Each structure stands twice: as C-alpha cells, then as structure tokens.
Amino acid sequence: MAILLNLETATTNCSVSISKDDQIIALKENNAENYSHSEQLHIFIKEALQEASLSFSDIEAVSISKGPGSYTGLRIGVSAAKGLCFSLDVPLISIPTLESMARQVELQAGEIVIPVLDARRMEVYSCVYDADYQEIRETRAEIIDEGSFAEYASASKVYLIGSGAEKCRGALEHPNFQFEETIVPSAREMAPLAFKKFQVKQFEDVAYFEPYYLKDFVIQSKKKA
Predict the structure, then answer these.
(1) 3-state SS assignment for residue 201
(2) Where are the alpha helices (DSSP H) in the chain?
(3) Who contacts 203 (Cβ-Cβ below 8 Å, separation ≥6)?
(4) Nearest to residue 212, comparing CAs of 140, 123, 148, 124?
(5) Cα–Cα distances in Å, from 46 out to 75, 79, 212?
(6) Minimal CA–CA distance to 139: which of 47, 10, 8, 3?
(7) If pLDDT is split at 50, 70 and 90, which confidence band does 83 have?
(8) Confidence (pLDDT) at 214
C-alpha cells in the first residue's frame, strides 16, 4: 500500500489529493480566478491529511502536475513539492497536466479528447489523446484558427476541454467537435497515473526537476522595407 500526495497548481484550480495506491481518500480544491495558490496550497495539504487521518510521515511520495500551464502556478506547486520531498525524504513524481486532465472525459472507442489550456491572445497549450488515453500528438503551443485539429475531425467525437475551449468554439465548426470550457486540471485524476509511476520507481531528480512551461511563443512582425 502506498500513500501519495498529489498537487495540481498549473491553472486557476488549487487542488490537493491524498491517494492510497490508485484510489483517492481525500481531496481539497478551489478554483478561483485570482490564483490564490500561495495562500491555499499548504492549508489544503494539511486539511487533506487530516481528512484522511494521516500525518506527513505517512507520505511515501509526492506527485506534481508538471505543466504546461501558468508560470506562477507551476512555480508554486513545484517549489512546495520539492520542499516536501527534501524534508520527508520521499521521491518526486511528475504528471503531465494535460494527460491527467484528459481523463476527466469518459471516452468510447473511436473518440478523441483534446485538452486545451488558454495561453495569450488566440494561443492555447494542447495535446491529443485517443480513447485509451494514449498520446497521439505531442503537447504544443499553437494559435487556433479554422483549420486547427482538422485532421481529427473524422473521429466519432472530439472533445475539446479546458480554459482554451472557448477560443476553439469560436473558430472551429464541425459537428463532431464538442466543447467543455469548465473542465480544469484536478489532483483527483493524478492518483492512478502517480501510482503507476510509483510502482516502477519512475521518479524525478528533486534537485534538478523543473516544470514544463512550454513558454508562449511570439510571432515576429515583418520588418518594413
């Protein structure tokens, strides 16, 4: 039996869960637009441990949502996770934010889910997963236009989920596309992914681990002649 602490701070949702193997036994989260992670995260950790009737000494690993996402949110989460790993002498596990997010949608054969997180202007961070939640296109920062994700339109249904879905709704017109703007990354879906990595000891180097920022790109304007 493994007790894992899971932290999700990549977006507006400050989320903490405690899992026993791959099952959630406590969850504390709050989705607020003002990014109050610095005030809430450590409080939620303590409250989740109390809810699970556990102490810090029971934690066997810490998993962190590694991004992409908010620069500030990721820094806060990773700093907290590293501090806990050092102080408790436990390993660090990283979970791709978009992968755990994708698992909030129950998929049928032939369906696809595309988590899209809002970046700036018409940009989003996105990744594409099949019905088995296998990555079929890598994570990218991209500008949304009418041709975005056209190669997946033949799927029986394409779910575009997350804060970037509103941009997609305004640009994409296809009957197979379904948009869910309210879905945010949560520590709830991190548990099975973290436990899988824990079982095979797929850990990060705590000293050198950095979040996956996938920093926004800038389109350079053409120089005037």
Answers:
(1) coil
(2) 37-51, 71-88, 97-102, 165-171, 190-199
(3) 61, 91, 92, 93, 197
(4) 140
(5) 20, 16, 26
(6) 10
(7) very high
(8) 80
Separation of alpha carbons 158 and 177, rounded Å: 5
Cα 215 from Cα 128, distance rounded (Å): 19
Backbone angles phi, psi at 143, to 5 degrees: -95, 130
| Residue with tokens 């990014």, as numbered in its chain | 35
- Cα gap 116→86, rounded to integer Å: 33
Query: Cα separation of 148 and 207, whole Å?
Result: 38
What is d(CA 206, CA 219) in angstroms, rounded to the nearest whole number? 34
Which tokens in the block code for residue 3? 């007790």
Instruction: DSSP letter for 220, please.
Output: P
Q: What is the pLDDT of residues 147-185, one digit of tens each?
A: 999 999 999 999 999 999 999 998 998 899 999 999 999
Q: Do 170 and 122 meet the contact criterion of CB atoms below 8 Å apart?
A: no
Look up residue 48 and give its two tokens.
């989740």
204 DSSP assignment:
B
Sequence-distant (6+) residues with CB within 8 A of 17 are 5, 6, 8, 24, 26, 27, 28, 48, 186, 187, 188, 190, 191
User: 140: which strand partners?
Assistant: 126
Half-sphere exposure of 30 (CA within 13 A, CB side): 16
